Amino acid sequence: MQNFEFENPTKIIFGKGCIAKIGEEVARFGDRVMVVYGRGSIKKNGIYDQVMESLQETGRTIVEFGGVKSNPVLSHALMGIDCARTEAVDVILAVGGGSVIDTAKTIAVGACTTLDTDMWDFFMRRQPITVALPIVTVVTISASASEMNPAAVMTKENEAQKFSIRSPHIQPKTSILDPTVLFSLSPAYSAYSAVDVITHMLEGYFNNEEPNSSLQDRLVEGLIDTVMESTRVILSDPADYNARANMMWGAVLAFNGLTTAGMGPISLPAHMIEHSLSAIYDVAHGAGLSIVLPGWMRYTALKTPAKFARLAREIFSVQGDDELQVALDGIECLKTWFSTIGSPISLEEVGIPKRDINSIAQNAHALAQVWGLNDYTVDVIARILTLCVE
Asked: What CATH fold (topology level) applies to the domain 11-180?
């Protein structure tokens, strides 16, 4: 295990009925609150009313900003920044999943900048984030762990670029996690969430610099096993509280820094490639990952099969002495599981033709350069995508 520093200052309030506490949490950070949300689902399932009632009970001045789409876009976030400045809000409250929280984080940064600031400079890593408004969240989709990490992802539509920002200044102050809000989540997004959670863990599991990682490996393997078990229950009984609770907390633990502590620098190549599918074709993030991850795993396992074979044995009970064959069998098991829960496993399934591979690879390579993934040339990315066609 390598040297590390771990600090996660987000306060988590977890359990049934805890949305009622959001008003007092927001009150810790100011009077004027911008409530950021999506395209109306929270008004249908009662979450909106719970949030507003709690805010009103504490006398907050409420500014609403809705309309966030899945795979959030910069143009909409810029509108939110203008609104936050005009209304002089003190705190941003995100009520939604990763897309909403990431939009809230972008607004929180932009509201503290000058009018001539190019927000994309933060995403291109040309300018550091030095200040942001405080962020509080009420989580309605558990996948990204944005509610307990210092990162956000945004798409710049006119350039079809999906890039990220990272800073302790956008770490949420408090996040409310009530598993009952997940009861109304569709089967598709329940599946996509599970894929995202698993991929978050596997990226660090495979892409690190620590050769002696038994503790972290077992932590990841145990979480993956629980997420898979919970997903099977959820798809048969969407209102199973314990399964939803396990997913909600598991999603946070998967990507809040805990599973990668002591692993040295890690990289996220599957996410890097998937971001292009989301940016160009507006594929749901989890759906894109279930296409890209097995292809990336197969490409990488052909060169270094040992860790992939370990996953195959620990998660899917694959037997055998040939490390490469065990690894490849395990990858097929994971791919089959993704398909079984209803997530796509090929570019063909989401209507992306093979002839687009080179343009996708060029798009992904732009992000690889920003993230410092220098081994991922256009040619390498294209080879990986070729393994994702069918």
From this structure: Rossmann fold (3.40.50)
Sorted by where each begins, the domain ranges of the chain are: 11-180, 185-386
What distance in Å separates the CA atoms of residue 10 and residue 26, rounded to the nearest whole number?
13
| Closest-CA residue to 183 (of 98, 244, 256, 119) | 244
- Report the relative pairing of strands 91-96 and 151-156 from DSSP bridges: unpaired
Sign of the CA dihedral running 311, 317, 320, 325:
negative
- The H or E element containing residue 165 is strand 161-166
Strands (E), 72-178: 91-96, 135-139, 151-156, 161-166, 174-177
What is the secondary structure of 8-71 as a DSSP string? ---EEEESTTGGGGHHHHHHTT-SEEEEEE-SSHHHHSSHHHHHHHHHHHTT-EEEEE--PPSS
pLDDT band at 292 (very low <50, low <70, confident <90, very high): very high
* Angstrom distance (rounded) from CA 294 to CA 350: 16
Chain centroid to CA 381: how far? 21
Query: Which residue is it, tokens 């081994």?
Result: 375
Residue 192's H or E segment, with its range, is helix 187-206
Between CA 331 and CA 158, with CA 357 as vertex, the angle to 5 degrees is 120
**CA 147 to CA 252: how far, in whole Å?**
8
185-386, which class in CATH?
mainly alpha
CB 137 within 8 A of CB 131: no
Please give the average per-residue pLDDT across 100-106, as a whole number: 98
Q: pLDDT tens digits for 191-207?
A: 999 999 999 999 999 99
User: Mean pLDDT in the chain?
Assistant: 96
CA distance 222 to 164: 28
Q: Is the pLDDT of residue 40 over 90?
A: no
Contacts of 319 (CB under 8 A, 6+ apart): 313, 326
User: Burial level of 348, CB count in 10 A (0-12/13-18/19+)?
Assistant: middle
CA 155/CA 72 separation, integer angstroms: 6
Q: In whole angstroms, what is the distance from residue 380 CA to residue 195 CA?
A: 23
> What element of type H or E holds 290?
helix 285-301
